[in-house]
Design goal:
Bound molecules: flavin mononucleotide
Shape: globular
Strand content: 15-25%
CATH class: Alpha Beta
Number of helices: 6
Largest sheet: 6 strands, mixed
Distance between the termini: 46 Å
């Protein structure tokens, strides 16, 4: 089993990376692999709402969104991490997620449905719960069970060294990893015993509300 994580910071070894690595260590302890997908500092296009992705994949091929969506098909769970920028997740992560999730809506096999997910935030000081809320909404609209934690899914610090001093934050990250492993094993066990995924009913689509 494998968990695919996304570092929504351009800082490859910064605070968000440090938090994700702590989740990863706890996963490995439970025999679950993980990989951190780095968004890096390259430009990431925003969704332009052209809708062409509904015929296959996103029309933009000059960044890693399509590559990530392919990798996501093979993943069993996800952790999306972001630094807090002005009390929201990084713009690059939001552009990335808008496109990755929107282009998966009419995929033959949605890469996100029914796969447990967690959001992880890093901040110097504030804006974490508002940012947490934003990322969680990608999960709830995509039938992804949310992996819970022992406290808010955040670490505090302005550098990796500071994050390593946030002992409670790191403890929360380890608990997220352990809970994710537990959920993945339960889902695998259910599958072995014939518990099928629920059918997704999309027959109603009411675009207007009166
Ligand atoms: C543009 C920008 C805006 C930021 N806004 C906030 C903020 O609203 N609240 C906060 O606590 N930290 C804020 N920070 C600090 C980062 O969230 C914090 O240093 C984070 O842990 C960096 O993570 P990283 O090393 O993974 O990039 C901001 C940093 C930048 C560059």
């Amino acid at each position: 089993m494998k968990v695919l994580m996304v570092n929504g910071s351009s800082n490859l070894k910064g605070c968000t990376f440090t938090a994700l690595t702590e989740v990863g260590k706890a996963l490995e302890k439970q025999g679950i692999e993980y990989e951190i997908f780095q968004l890096g500092a390259k430009p990431i296009r925003d969704c332009i709402g052209c809708g062409k992705c509904q015929e296959g994949k996103c029309i933009f091929n000059d960044d890693d969104v399509n590559k990530f969506v392919e990798m996501a098909q093979e993943a069993d769970g996800f952790v999306f991490g972001s630094p807090v920028y002005y009390a929201h997740p990084s713009g690059r992560l939001l552009s990335f997620l808008d496109r990755a999730f929107y282009c998966s809506v009419s995929a033959q096999k949605n890469p996100f449905h029914f796969k447990p997910s967690a959001a992880v935030l890093s901040a110097r000081r504030a804006g974490t719960t508002a940012s947490f809320d934003v990322i969680n909404k990608y999960f709830t609209i995509s039938m992804m069970p949310i992996v819970a934690a022992s406290y808010w899914n955040m670490v505090h610090g302005n550098s990796s060294e500071e994050v390593l001093q946030d002992l409670e934050g790191l403890q929360t990250m380890r608990n997220i990893g352990a809970n994710m492993a537990w959920m993945l094993k339960n889902i695998a066990c259910g599958k072995e015993h014939g518990i099928a995924r629920p059918e997704v009913d999309r027959s109603q689509r009411t675009n207007f509300i009166r």
